[in-house]
Structures are given as C-alpha cells and as structure tokens.
Amino acid sequence: MQYVSTRGGVQPVNFEQVLLEGQAEDGGLFLPEQYPLLTDRWDSLKELSFRELAYEIVSLYATDIDPNALREILRDAFNSFDEADVAPLVQINDLHVLELFHGPTLAFKDVALQVLGRLFEHVLRNRNQVLNILGATSGDTGSAAIAGVQGRDGIGIFIMFPDGRTSPLQELQMTTVREENVHCLAIDGSFDDCQRILKSIFNDIEFKRRASLGAVNSINWARIMVQIVYYVYATLRYNEPVTFSVPTGNFGNILSAILAMRMGAPIRRLILGTNENDILARFFASGEYKRGKVQQTLSPSMDIQVASNLERFIYLYLDGDAEKLIRFMEEFAKRDHAVLHQNGEVDATINAQRVNTDETIATIRKTWERFGYLVDPHTAVGVAAATQAHLEGPVVCLATAHPAKFPNAVDQAIGRTVASHPRLDELQERNARKIRLPADQNKVRDYLEEHVIS
Ligand SMILES: *Cc1c(COP(=O)(O)O)cnc(C)c1O
C-alpha cells in the first residue's frame, strides 16, 4: 500500500515512512491510496477473534511490515488488555456499548497506542534508528502514549504537562511509570505554555533532526488504521446494519468508522457527539467550520476547538481535490472560519449532536438507574447523543474511558462513589517521579539535550 498527502505535495510513500513521519512534509496528513473491500469475505470474518481480525485488516495497510512480525506485534499489544476479546460488546436491553477501555490506561487510545509503540520499536530496530517522542498533554493522551512505549528499545518519551493542572489520577498514571525511557516534565505554567514550547522546539529543524524528535499525536495514520478494527469487529456481531455513536474531539475515532464503511462494513449511520466545544456539531449541521473559545467541561479529552483529523474527512469529501482542500485549510488558518458549502448538512450518514454538562450528568445517572451500567462523562456524551438523534435500528455507543478515571463527574451524577478500578487504586501506593521545569523552551531543550536516546 502506498500513501498520499491530503495536500498533494509529496510523492507516494510506504507505511514505514508514514508511521515514522507522522505528518507529511507538505503540511498535509497521510491517507492510503485505496481502501480494500472486505465484502466478498465478510462471512468468514465472523469466525475470527479480535486479534485475528486485527491482523486481517492491518496487514492490508502495513504491507511493508513482515507478516510474522506484524502478527506477533498485534498479539503482544492486545495481550496487554484485561479482556480476552479486547473490545467487548455489552448489550443490556436497548443499550449497546462497545467497551474500548480495557487497556493499560483504561481509555480507548490504548487500542491504537499499544500497537503503535510496538510498531515503532520493530521498524526502528530494523533501520538501526532511535526515536525521541516529545509531547504535551492536558490529561489522557500522555499516559496512553507513555504506556505504549515504556521500556521499549530505541525509544525515549518526554511528556510535558502543566504542573498541578491535570487531574491527580491522570498525573499519577504518568508519573508512577518506572521505566528509564520515560520522562514526565511538569511545567510551571499552563497547557498553552506546554504547547508553545512544543511548537518552538519542533520548529528548530536542526535540533529536531539531531535529537531524532518525533510525535505520537492523533494525526498518525497508524492510530486511525488500528481503530478500524473494532468497528468491523462490532459490525460483524450484527445481522443488520449498525449505527455507532461516537464521542468526538479530534475526529480520530469517528474517522476510523468512516473508513470501515469505505471498506464495506455495513454501517447505517454515525452519530457524532460533542460537548459544549461543538465546532464539529456546528460544522456537520451547517457546512461552516468556525472556531469557538475552548470551554472546560466534564469530558476534558473532548475540550477541543480544532479537530486535527477533520482534514482527512474534507479530503475524502472533496474527492481528493488537494487544491480545494488547501484553500479551505488556509482560509480557516487565516480567519478561524471557512465554509465547505452553504446547503446545511454536510454528510447524510453523519448525525451531529451537541450535549451539554447537565445532559451529561443526567445521562450518567439515567444509564445507571435504568440499566445498572456506569458510563464515564465522555461515553455519556455519546449515549446522550444517541438518545437525541433518535434513529432506527441498533445503535452501538462507544465507551471511550473507564468510569473510575473520572470520579468527580460520576460521583456527582450518582451522589456517591460507585466507580473504582484496582489499577487506579494501586497508583496511590506507588512512588511518583517527575521533573519540574519552568515554562521556558531553553530549559526544556537543555533537559532534552542531556537525556535523549542517541
Ligand atoms: C481522546 C478521547 C476522546 C476523543 O477521541 P477523538 O479521536 O479525539 O475524537 C473521547 N473520549 C476519551 C476518553 C478520550 O480519551
């Protein structure tokens, strides 16, 4: 499989390059040249375990990874999950939930990042290269990225976070990791300071090259690719087309559903749920992409006003017309506002819903009372969006985090503490380790100079 950039400015590249580069040199995002169809062997796929299905799908895209190595990477990655079938489908009356939170950090990002860390290790070893991952996090992504690469050969990871401003649980999930290749940098400043430092360090091309710096953000194609697996896996459990309800931030998770559809998975509709940060809900209803102010909500991993993966959707929507895409993206970069079209709804398969804080709390409570099932606030946005959308046929809600990760919201909804997880309880007993640094790019760079793997 070869990959092209959404901005049309690079020659086609192979999977290894897409994995290591993350973003294309012309500023675009990578997409495969084709989406292989699964339809002619659909029935035989029903027999496969999650791991076997993962191999069938990933091997269509990661064609330059040795098949035996790939099988082993996937097997090993999914062994880190608590559940044998990795993403169990829970059905309680008319509530259908696909649980994606059984990985090491109890959030859906583990599904892709457990695979990604192992893919990096494999490819770097073959090429005799190293990689130092630099990232900034306000919460969830950092711990899942760390869990994906901790202890792996040839990889260092440096995660900046605003000291004292992430939730105590999220901080512990990062700082209690003992492996030497993990560096938690507690920055004396805000999340914006962390992002500013990140940008300035990545903009220094000479340093970036010398220190073998890279990122593992949500635009890496390999993450989108792995996530296709659970949509196909869930769809195979039904004898009729399924609708998925997806709580959305960076448009990564739901993009994988769109690509599963392209591969022939019988998906009827997609419900896109946002919290008060509703740029995507407004976009899909109107065709207008207009940045708003970021608001803090109970679902912090969706507190985003620019969805980095939307560029891939727009490219597909424009049938690969890179010039039109560039015009749209440049317009948005300049004015925080761009119009895709004037006719209202963007895509008949995508039903976008905004869910506010009160509805989120009410949904956690109602889902508990009616079904005895506890959802985290992100999942609750998807469940509420499904109720609001009121569509025909089975609707599968994606559970993107374990409720015990967000005890404040869940306790507030239920009125007492009901959510817990032994792995989170155990964190309190462990030694935490973090490096405190001022919000100064030179100090962060000095630290990197001294600690990167070379
Ligand atoms: C990251 C995250 C999301 C949003 O996923 P996107 O791919 O950014 O749309 C939703 N829920 C949880 C718990 C997350 O960590």
Q: Please, could you describe this protein's structure?
A:
There is one protein chain. With 454 residues, the chain is α/β, with parallel strands linked by helices. The strands form four sheets. Strands 3-4-14-9-10-13 form a six-stranded mixed β-sheet, with helices on both faces. The protein has a five-stranded parallel β-sheet with strand order 8-5-6-7-15, sandwiched between helices. Strand 9, helix 11 and strand 10 form a beta-alpha-beta unit. Helix 5 crosses helix 10 and helix 6 packs parallel to helix 7. The protein is globular, with a radius of gyration of 21 Å. The model has no long low-confidence stretch (mean pLDDT 95). The chain binds pyridoxal-5'-phosphate.
CATH top level of the domain at 89-105 and 222-421 is: Alpha Beta
Distinct compounds present: pyridoxal-5'-phosphate
- Looking at the overall shape, the CATH architecture of the domain at 89-105 and 222-421 is 3-Layer(aba) Sandwich
Q: If strands are numbered along the chain, what order do they take across the biggest sheet? A: 3-4-14-9-10-13
What name is given to the CATH topology of the domain at 89-105 and 222-421?
A: Rossmann fold
User: Span between N and C termini?
Assistant: 31 Å
Number of strands: 15
Category by helix and strand content: alpha/beta
Tell me the major beta sheet.
6 strands, mixed
What percentage of amino acids are in beta strands? Answer: 15-25%
Low-confidence stretches: none
How confident overall, as mean pLDDT? 95
Q: What is the helix content?
A: 40-55%
**Computed CA radius of gyration, to the nearest angstrom:** 21 Å
Shape: globular
Count of alpha/pi helices: 19
